[in-house]
Amino acid sequence: MSQSFLPPTRLLMGPGPSNVPKRVLEAMARPTIGHLDPVFVAFMDELKGLLQWVFRSDNTLTLPVSGPGTAGMEACFVNLLEPGDKIVVCRNGAFGQRMVEMSERIGAEVIVVDQDWGRAVDREAVARTLAEHPDARVLAFVHAETSTGAVSDAAALAALAIEHDCLSIMDCVTSLGGMTLEVDDWGVDAAYSGTQKCLSCPPGLSPVTLSERAAEKIRARNYPVQSWFMDFSLVMNYWGGGGKRAYHHTAPVNALYGLHEALLILKEEGLESAWRRHAETHQQLKRMLEGLGIEFVVPEGERLPQLNAVRIPAGIDDAEGRRYLLEEHGIEVGAGLGPLAGKIWRIGLMGETCRPESVTRLEQGLRGLLGR
Amino acid sequence: MSQSFLPPTRLLMGPGPSNVPKRVLEAMARPTIGHLDPVFVAFMDELKGLLQWVFRSDNTLTLPVSGPGTAGMEACFVNLLEPGDKIVVCRNGAFGQRMVEMSERIGAEVIVVDQDWGRAVDREAVARTLAEHPDARVLAFVHAETSTGAVSDAAALAALAIEHDCLSIMDCVTSLGGMTLEVDDWGVDAAYSGTQKCLSCPPGLSPVTLSERAAEKIRARNYPVQSWFMDFSLVMNYWGGGGKRAYHHTAPVNALYGLHEALLILKEEGLESAWRRHAETHQQLKRMLEGLGIEFVVPEGERLPQLNAVRIPAGIDDAEGRRYLLEEHGIEVGAGLGPLAGKIWRIGLMGETCRPESVTRLEQGLRGLLGR
């Protein structure tokens, strides 16, 4: 019964994971070494530099959290929020909702700025809310809402946080590497991402960066961070640099090899070139979808290039249509989440997947599905 | 400056990671597929079966937590403890201390049963403490203390928990796959492990299993679990089986390929055979070390076969000696932690590393170091 698992080869056009380049897979298959080996410690320093580069940040506290994006997300919230702190959360999709739930579990007082799913966060509404709540400590928002395909003006929201003396937490799980993102220029205090989107690694790591303001908040906390595993004051001693590492937990050595290689690939292409490739391939996808009469959920101007939410074509069953694309064409597209379940599909064009050939193959699949 | 990272090949004889077989590394390099792909969902069911097999348990709630052993550890504590709950923690090393710290952060009332580092937990002391605290809800202990190389009588401790109507949490990070371990026969309620010890995978996943009694406790909680990421009531819907998976977080797909392959390798050998191999290779190591006059920290009868704490030989500098073994012989041995730092080395014989050839190579290294 039990045999080695030989996965099929898929074209991964869902909300993540995206396709992983051979080079990254091969890097992960290199021999495991000790996480405190001097060679590995030097590697960690280099990896940190690459993460600073992709985040466009000089933040000292920049590291890959040893868990998926959700772990990096929770790490930011539990470190920057204390029980009783007031936080303003922008909720325009499933990941904004998750921010609310995490903040509540910390015992924070949560003020929600709601927006329709599929729309960008409303800057004016956020500004009004921050003005009404001058005691708010944190503003949290999602740059690229993976559940709806909407982008919000992260620069403007981070600026509002500064203006109102809040720390900002930015979810950039789906944006990092796929579109303009400037942690330092925008003045974002905490940003977390995932590896399985535009960085084209397997899932399992969460790159995180925190500003000096955020680090100060952590140092000045009244209560210990509720999570020992996620406590950045402990993790900092491990990823802190300077050659001396205090053991905290065992780093996922081979996954880090993969992330390092993926960042090298991105660096060879150039970050702005990768952003441009995502924007251009999105235009190609848009023309293709419009040619087939398939409609976008998000209004033009608020759309993510790398994650395209579209209405399920009339007459097509959600699960059956996705099964057809997967089994007959080897293409994965994503289902809708929450209120959009059964109504939309999410078409990813992230990282390695973001190529003209992917659009061409999807067009063939969709034509087969629609009988055209 | 930035180039692909080509790690050296090491013989990993520290406290983990252990050496990873080529088959496992190759499995991890297979193409990434979607974590909700039907093929992957079927794979998850098979992996769950393999984990039940290695834990010797029929527990429905058996899964690999998407993070290192420390994440699986914290997941057990935050799910089974609520603020105000009384817990008895057996502390005979660094990981018992970590249990105390995690429990305190949850807001539990922590009663500690201390034992000297390097000794097994004292069953009688635990029995007395449980009798003195009839309102204790949880008993937590470490089966195989990675920081000292001592094994405790997990069967007896789990029996005490049942007798005193407590749930038991067992750390089996270093024991799983390397020595007798019977989750169901012993009546353990929650056990967590790591992949980078006797399972010989890279670090990054934490196999966990919870009894029906533990699942009932989670369902009957008064407060939500403080961690959203680690909340088993949410994770259960994702790993729960039955074909329908609710999205919770993105599973670390390729790391799971590796774990699956590692468990297959173990199954081909047979679990009892692997336990025997660890016991026999330990005897070989013991003879070799005694031949060189190197002393064990832990009294005979309380020693782990797979992790051997020894006094640093007289006249040898801790860091310099380990550097020599690493650089001149390609062998990693582990340093001491906490009060044992600078006094001991930890010699791992775990999983793939646990071969007669490893002992032979280490002997050469030690002879070179000692000039004999």
TrEMBL record, chains A, B:
SUPFAM superfamilies: PLP-dependent transferases. Coiled coil: none annotated. This is Alanine--glyoxylate aminotransferase family protein. Residues 35-336 form the Aminotransferase class V domain. Keywords: Aminotransferase, Pyridoxal phosphate, Transferase. One of its GO terms (molecular function) is transaminase activity. Its cofactor is pyridoxal 5'-phosphate. CDD domains: AGAT_like (cd06451). It comes from Natronospira bacteriovora. InterPro entries: Aminotrans_V_dom (IPR000192), Aminotrans_V_PyrdxlP_BS (IPR020578), PyrdxlP-dep_Trfase (IPR015424), PyrdxlP-dep_Trfase_major (IPR015421), PyrdxlP-dep_Trfase_small (IPR015422), SP_NH2Trfase/AEP_transaminase (IPR024169). Belongs to the class-V pyridoxal-phosphate-dependent aminotransferase family. Pfam families: Aminotran_5.
